[in-house]
Automatic annotation (TrEMBL):
Keywords: ATP-binding, Cytoplasm, Kinase, Nucleotide-binding, Transferase
Membership in a protein family: Belongs to the guanylate kinase family.
Record-given protein name: Guanylate kinase
Record domain Guanylate kinase-like: where: 5-185
Pfam short name (any one): Guanylate_kin
GO MF annotation terms: ATP binding; GMP kinase activity
Source organism (scientific name): Paracoccus aestuariivivens
């Protein structure tokens, strides 16, 4: 295979800024595909079916898992979340890179899958737990008890930071976005065969050198 897409995994404690960084990366490179997850969580105001998530009831979600349609799945904050497999495989075959916003369990499962050698993983840390809580509150999307539950789980998520290839402390959003772009640029250069340089090099060597 001359060109196969990379799988770029973003994980962090809830509220550290993954979705914001993912949006920045996709504005920078419109060829990137965002992996839309399925979840049993109720939609937040403004969340759109098929855009932010595929919102499914628990029975439908479990049936998708049983049919082998999920690349990974996990329970996070009392809800089920999972990555539909087929769109990821289609994107890889088409040579498109895919961006994932998944928790540490999803990160572990994708790395352990048959696609694991295509993974680049990035962990996003908040500058402090106080700032993490401030971000969750200022996002204005979750009830106080939901925020308290997410803060309680934040140390659990953070304890997996060393499983990742890269770690970004998301203090300044512009600097963090630049760091992310640099990672993707370097990783693409580091994998010349995977990003499709093979045919180019073959043509180069067949050129008449005069
Ligand atoms: N560097 C930053 N400085 C200040 N605010 C930030 C920064 N990065 C993100 N935010 C803000 O923090 C809030 C949480 O960010 P975001 O929704 O991207 O987090 P997340 O990690 O995707 O959360 P979740 O895991 O719950 O989906 C948002 O209101 C966002 O605008
Ligand atoms: N293992 C997976 N985790 C996922 C997936 N999609 C999202 N997530 C993680 O869930 C939490 C909460 O997300 P929220 O949208 O309810 O704030 C967050 O850490 C996400 O990274 C998935 O498909 N698999």
């Amino acid at each position: 295979m001359d060109r196969s897409g990379l799988l770029i995994i973003l994980s962090s404690p809830s509220g550290a800024g993954k979705s914001t960084l993912a949006r920045r990366l996709m504005e920078w490179d419109s060829s990137l595909r965002f992996s839309v997850s399925a979840t049993t969580r109720k939609p937040r105001p403004g969340e759109v079916e098929g855009d932010h998530y595929y919102f499914r009831d628990p029975d439908t979600f479990r049936a998708m898992v049983a049919a082998g349609n999920m690349l990974e799945h996990a329970e996070v904050f009392g809800n089920l979340y999972g990555t539909p497999r087929e769109p990821v495989e289609d994107a890889m075959r088409a040579g498109r890179d895919t961006l994932f916003d998944v928790d540490w369990q999803g990160g572990q499962q994708i790395r352990a899958s048959a696609l694991g050698n295509h993974v680049i993983s990035i962990f996003v840390l908040p500058p402090s737990l106080a700032e993490l809580e401030r971000r969750l509150i200022s996002r204005g999307q979750d009830a106080p008890e939901v925020i308290a539950g997410r803060m309680q789980k934040s140390r659990d998520e953070i304890s997996h930071w060393a499983e990742y290839d890269y770690v970004i402390v998301n203090e300044d959003i512009d600097q963090s976005a630049e760091a992310l772009k640099s990672i993707l640029t370097a990783e693409r250069l580091r994998r010349p065969r995977q990003v499709g340089l093979g045919p180019f090099v073959r043509r180069l060597m067949e050129e008449d050198g005069r």
